[in-house]
Amino acid sequence: MRKSKGVEHVLDQAGSRLGHPCDVDLLRFFRRHPRALLTSEQLAACVGYDVQKVSRSLDSLIGAGLVTRSPTPKSSARMYVLTSGGTHGGWLKSLLEVAATPEGRRALLQALARRHSPGGRPEAGGKLGAVRAGRSGRVRREAT
Amino acid sequence: MTERDFAKTGINGLDAILSGGIPRGNLTLVEGAVGTGKTTLGLEFIFRGATEFNEPGLIVVFEVAPDRLIRDAAGFGWDLRELERQGRLKIVFTTRQVFEQELQEAGSLLLEEAGKIGARRIFIDSFGRRALGHDDNNNNNNGSRDPRDAFHILAEGLYRENFTALLAHEVVAQEEVRRAAAVPEEFIADTVLLLRLEPVERAVQRSIEIVKSRGHEYQMGRHSFRIVDGRGLEVYRRVQAPRDPTRELAAAFDPTTRISSGTPGLDDLLSGGYFVGSTTLVVGISGVGKSVMSLQYIAEGVRLGERSLMLTLDEPPAQVLRNAASIGVDLQGAIDRAAVRLYYDPPQEIEIDRHFHRIEQIVREFKPRRAVIDSLSTYGSSLGAAGRTFRDFFHAIVALMKEHQVTAIYNHENPEMFGMSSMMGDYGVSSLVDNIILLNWVELGDVLRHAVTVSKMRASPTSHVTRECEIVNGVGMRVLARAIPPNAQPIPFAGYYGLLARSPERRPSGT
Questions:
Q1: What whole-number distance in Å separates Cα of residue B112 and Cα of residue B119?
Q2: Neighbouring C-beta atoms of residue B153, cutoff 10 Å
Q3: Which residues in chain A are contacts of B68 at CB distance < 8 A?
Q4: Where are the beta strands (DSSP E) in B255-388?
Q5: Residue B28 CB: number of other CB atoms within 10 A?
Q6: CB-CB: which of A32, A34, A37 is closest to B94?
């Protein structure tokens, strides 16, 4: 109960900056790898979503000032750096702490799915519908 | 090369065997199988560089997540996160493929990151043979580029930036397989450090070998090391490795001063005492009085204000203290006053390089005048008499004591109860010692009595007389006076049977 309250509170603070499970999983990845030099295909493979979803999430996180990306790719790889979140640092830290455990991640994704379903309730098909949808197009191949 | 031409690793003991560190700009391969300590060595190299030598560093990882690395480093007391905050370290997660591409680009993002903090050191964790396009049998699986070329290109990228680079390199555990296959990376790299986990009986010991290092001298052979919680790596120079050649010359040799044995009556047999810096072997069966004689030697040092080191493998400290108290020696008090240092190392699975390193440290720091090593036979049973390790260790410790002019007594247990057919049995080191004292049982009637003989004493007249001695509870050992009138005529050898067997009988007169 307390945990779900914490999750809701974190998501309240995050507001519109988090919209998709991929956002959460990308932040989780960058928490473990705060400075990563990867191609977009490799990054997508690491987090388990398709390249397009990852690209959209990255744009969103970069726009929110949570992640920086090297601006001009001289090669196909780009440097991604997790920032402290600036003025939003408080909620980012809390979010990363919650998301660090499998239970916390699940709770976050479920809460996120609830918020983005019509009427703020989980859609038919279960609370993890969004998660499944997010992972359905995952790319497992390494970039060539 | 001057000192400035070397990048010190800062790793305890490693710079000593590298004769000052790694030549700046060298590409170093840290080779080893799984679990040999490559990552820890690389992390410490970067951490020490940033914290002790003002050389910022870059860590590039391919498999281990940086947060794991940071967590593991924290276990050694290395706060990598703080170094990142201070701009003295960057940890970059990437793939090998991207890394290789990056090093081939003049405007590399990776090198740009390194440049931002002025990185001088880089640690790359890690490359395996497969990663460079060949399998364990050295077959090229890349299809396009020769693995040697691939590594050469990688090395050129690192040279261009003049990094002192450490590259962890996974190799197979089995030595014979490893050696059977040519390792092209070893030809290209400037320095190769090989880490091993070596089975010793049923234990495992870590070792490090400098296979090659361009541009300077280094100590060859396999040196032991440990990974110590809260500290990091500790490398212990191979006990057989040659020390500084000037050290024997540096020792202040004192050819005349003698020091007292502390056993009443014994100095008479020793022509006044042991020469300073001499090596004395006290040989006898268990219980004959070797430890008592040693404790009195230490107690005499305390009385004269000379620091003493007691090195024991046979008995733990509490037992040594109790033994000392039983002959009226307050050893604990002497330890508390820093007059005596008692060093106990259990003999099971002794790591001889580490053990010797510790003795060396104590001798240098504590500066004892006297030392007792109890006992040589325990070293023998731990290290084995057949190989060279025991003899090399004994050589090394004798040289160490002589260098520091420590007068050392080595107890040695001889298994023979009556008489001795050999002083050192299989160990064969008696030629290295200056003095030999034999302690024996003599059976007279139904009583075993103590006998002492000085059988060897270099540079001194030796009477070879066997004298009775006694050990009195609360008092200790003393050598009894010879109760033969000075003008009595000695009986010739011809008057006895069994002299060499130490069980002589008077020959009946007329036979």
A1: 10
A2: 13
A3: 32
A4: 258-259, 274-275, 279-284, 308-312, 340-344, 370-374
A5: 28
A6: A37
Inspect the interface and report whether the beta carbons of A35 and B97 lie closer than 8 Å.
Answer: no
> What pTM does this model have?
0.79
Task: Decide: B118 and B56 in contact? Cβ < 8 Å.
Answer: yes
Q: In angstroms, what CA-CA distances link B511 with B354, B489, B503?
A: 61, 20, 18
Q: Are strands A35-38 and B89-94 parallel, antiparallel or unpaired?
A: parallel
Phi, psi of B166 (to 5 degrees): -115, 130
User: Which among B247, B147, B137 has a CA at the least distance from the CA of B181?
Assistant: B137
How far apart are the C-alpha atoms of B191 and B215, rounded to whole Å? 9
Closest CA to B434 of B403, B464, B398: B398
Of B473, B466, B478, B477, the C-alpha closest to B292 is B477
Token look-up 């050992």 returns: B477
Assign residue A75 a region: left if phi > 0, alpha if psi is -120 to 50, beta otherwise? beta
User: How many Cα neighbours within 13 Å face the side chain of A8?
Assistant: 8
* Interface test with chain A among B93, B111, B117, by most A beta carbons within 10 Å: B93
Could you tell me the sign of the dihedral formed by the alpha carbons of B220, B226, B227, B229, in that order?
negative
B495 pLDDT higher than 90: no
Q: How many separate helices (H) and strands (E) can be counted in chain B?
A: 17, 24
Nearest partner of B343 among B353, B357, B329, B330, judged by Cα: B357
Q: Considering only CB atoms, which chain A residues are within 8 Å of B90? A: 35
A57 Cβ contact list (under 8 Å, min separation 6): A20, A22, A23, A26, A49
Gap between the Cα atoms of B140 and B133, Å rounded? 6
Spatial neighbors of B176 by CB under 8 A, at least 6 apart, are none
**What is the value of ipTM here, to two decimals?**
0.76
CA B181 from centre of chain: 33
**C-alpha B508 chain-centroid distance:** 57
What is the DSSP code (8-state) at residue B60? E
Nearest to A75 among B65, B92, B105 (CB): B105
Token digits of residue B339: 């007059």
**Interstrand relation of B308-312 and B279-284 (parallel, antiparallel or unpaired):** unpaired
Distance CA B46, CA B122 (A): 7
| Side chain identity at residue B242, one-letter code | P
- DSSP annotation of B12 reads B
3-class DSSP state for residue B237? coil
Q: Given phi > 0 = left and psi -120 to 50 = alpha, else beta, which region is B425?
A: left
| Alpha helices, DSSP H, located in B26-171 | 38-52, 66-74, 80-85, 96-103, 109-116, 147-160
Query: For B447-490, how does the pLDDT look when each residue is reduced to its tens digit (9 = 90+)?
Result: 888 999 998 888 888 778 889 999 998 899 999 987 777 677 77
Judging contacts by C-beta atoms under 8 Å, the chain A residues touching residue B67 are 31-34
Q: Are B258 and B276 in contact (CB under 8 A)?
A: yes
pLDDT digits (tens, 9 = 90+) for B265-323: 999 999 999 999 999 999 998 888 999 999 999 999 999 999 999 999 989 999 999 99
Q: How buried is residue A15: exposed, middle or buried, by Cβ count under 10 Å (0-12/13-18/19+)?
A: exposed
Instruction: Quote the CA–CA distance of B413 and A28 in Å, as a whole number.
Output: 64
